[in-house]
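Lab notes, practical 5.
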Amino acid sequence: MAEENTQDGNAGAATEQGPNVALQSVYVKDLSFEAPKGPFVPAQDQEPKIQLNLNTSSSIVGTGVHEVVLTVTLEAKSGAQPVYLAEVKQAGVFTIQGFNPDDTRRILGSFAPNVLFPYVRQTVSDMISKGGFPPFFLPPVNFDALYERSLQEQAARKAAAPAAEEAPKQVN
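Output from the prediction step:
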């Protein structure tokens, strides 16, 4: 009798699944590199000013399956002259099941970019090196803080929208 209870308990645990996030694949979705003068920048210009932009986006691929794209744009300039421009769209397909909508958004906006970041970091470094320049290693990024900041900005925009609607309109 005790064996029957144990078997039933294990069967129930095996069929009942809790929340789950699984990475299905990681791939480069788009890649671009431009170096107008190649690596032949004069020696005094070897320390260009670098502008880094990060962006994330996600789309639904199927039921519980999402594609997340982490875009990194890196622009190096010496004064007004471009040294190089690199853009990588690193993507991943994630299966997300059993989470409420808020948690799913957090996974897509914070967890998934954290998973993709080491891949895009390596791709950017390799691409710049193959362009003839010293490798550039992306600095660490706190995607949790960026996600929280985006939530705060959305809340501020929502709060400002009703206030703008309630403001009296002036007629000239």
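Observations recorded by the TA: Residues 101-130 form the longest helix (30 residues). The longest strand covers residues 81-97.
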